[in-house]
Amino acid sequence: MEFIFYVMETKVSMRKNFFKILFLIVSLGLAIRGGEIVVQAGTSQQDAMQEARDGLAMAPDNLGLNETQFSYGDFSGFGSSARNSAILQNSSMHSTGTSYDPLMAIRMTNYINQEGAIWSNVDNGNYVNINNKQTLSCWLYFGPSQHIHSGDSFGDGMAFVLQNPANGISSFSHNGTTIGTGETLGVWGMDTDKSIDSIQKIADTAIQDSWALEFDTNANKSKVSNDDFDDESDITGQHIAYGYPGDASTYVKHSADFIGSSNYYSMNHSGVRNITTLHDGNWHHLTVSWDPTTFRITYKYNDKNLDGSKSDTPLISTSDPVHATEFGGKSAMTNKLQWGFTATSGSAYEPNLIALESIPSSVEGTVTSDITDNTQNRTFSETDTNRNVNSGDSLSFNYHLRFDSGENKWLNDVAQITFPSNVTFKNGDANQVLGYVTYNDGSDAKAEPIYASEIDQDTGRLKHSIAKDLYVSSDGTYRPSEATITVNGVANDVTSTTKVDSVSAHFDSDNLITDTDTPDFTIKKAKAIGLTLDQSNLTVDNSHDANITGTVSYVDGSTVNNSDITVHENLNGKDLATSKLDSSAASGKLNLNIPSADLTQTTNTLKVYVEDADGNVSTTSTVVITKKGSLSLKVDDYSFGTINQATASMLIPRKGDWNIVVNDGRENGTTNPWHLSATTSGLYNGDTAFNGNLVFKNSSGSEQSLTGSTGVNIANGYKSADGNQVTNVGKSWNDSDGILLKTTGFNSAGQYTGKMNWVLSESI
């Protein structure tokens, strides 16, 4: 608490004389202990308050603290002087109560001889579910690099704690009614009672059935004062480490090593990471995650910058498997762990501040980003090695949001997207639409447009409120659980290869704050590539392949590497398999062979373009390939006569003329015969099959069924005249031969239809 009496200046007029009465500033530092207000002398407390104020004023965007989800540590059992210093404050050092304020932060301690604790309210759905992936994301602040009162020391830090919920909110280091201070950080055992000669007794004074991650700003290495928890060779100063506070194996007993000293204890730290300084005047990001498949806890420190972008130098550490026995066993804890923070200070002080971005059990959500190069028809993320695009390529920047688990919906999410450099974001239509939000609930893919008007003119960032909350309904169906934000742009025309750095996108909601970075990528200067074919029209013999030649070249005259050039072909509307230029041929030499069997039409259209390894694409060239002397077949629709009643084995004649015309345009003198065969899958009236078969009856009276997969030879012919020789196979049939319909039983009234498959071939 801080009371300040302000200067007041008053002017008093007495005739023509003016007097100024100046009241002096009186600034008192006040602290509450045991219900009494105690004035603490010196400037250090005022400095401490100012340092906390400075840190709070710089607090990053955060969720604040909903007091229905959290509980302050209960110190009522630790003596009348024990007070929980943890409090929710804004930048003015005022308590914010329960109202929502995005600048809220938790102040754990800020002056000497303080203890603070805050715990998740398990009963209100705030816990770590060990059966699910869980993530805590927050910012930590440990004070400036140097105190305002430069002679003062920093200490002692704070700890993130997971514990058995049965321990409750009164959990804190204590020995009887004596509360832990200094090196305990409120979670480790106490080594202040010199009469204790048992490791187990030290462990008993810690928070039981717990796991803790400490951020220790004061290396404790004093044997004389029983303040030696950090007496390990690998601890050089301020550090981060983790362990089991209530486990006796965490502590090491040391016998007195000089006259007049007593036994003392140190700690076995796990995962020690020495930090040059935790208190540097900056907020530091922390992510703690639980993996339900490996039972391991991973923490990432300094994994995100203040602007939301990913840090290049995060400190990452993963624990050994953590089993339920460490928290008292499954029977004692079910699947829920209580989490919280503890902090202490002794003769040194610092502002220990926390700003939360996510609450594990509330919403577990994931955001990722990738880029689609629409011109090159490929999508890449930061893990892909080829992240090159060309000048002028159409690009889509995609942000994928996925609700993984949680007690609540992912509510009121607002995306704030920073645009990368050297990309022009254009509206796609007259309505100034830059992109869309799509969901996995089956709704219209373009139901939620993103407009150019949503770009902030001051910051240049796109700010879009996502219309739908993300969640998984109680019955396990998606309602929706995923959203994809797509913003479209075009890579600028660059004069040289240009690196485009990743930029962050910030997602701010009522119950989750998270960020993602776009992949960095490279824009390559457009390199115009040309394709010149030696033929635009080509005529080939009926049994011969078509050979297409040409040249690939760069407009700037640079050398073409054949192995880098992909050839794309489309014949008669069908894409063929891609190929490469022959690496053994001259640079840029194109040589294509189109098999005769693929030239199925009298006039065939081949379209060709080439693409290099960087995605530079040529224009499309076209060749018309005409088959000289080819066979062709033309048939009309045909039908059978109408009958009123049919008996088994009855032959139904054709109706009208059946024109089945073979055009033999092969070269004069061709001696190879042609063959015409046919098959059918039958006749149907809707789903009802006709009881009978199509048959072919030759002039000698022999019948063959056309139903099946094996073609029945209908006619044969030879080239016996010059030029085009036309044979109408149907004209040679009379009423008793050719293709007829034969019944095999009674048929319901109706119209029956089917398809005939014809094959005209040439044998050698």
TrEMBL record:
UniProt xrefs under SUPFAM superfamilies: Concanavalin A-like lectins/glucanases
Domain of life the protein comes from: Bacteria
Listed Gene3D superfamilies: 2.60.120.200
Stated name of the protein: Extracellular protein
Organism: Companilactobacillus paralimentarius DSM 13238 = JCM 10415
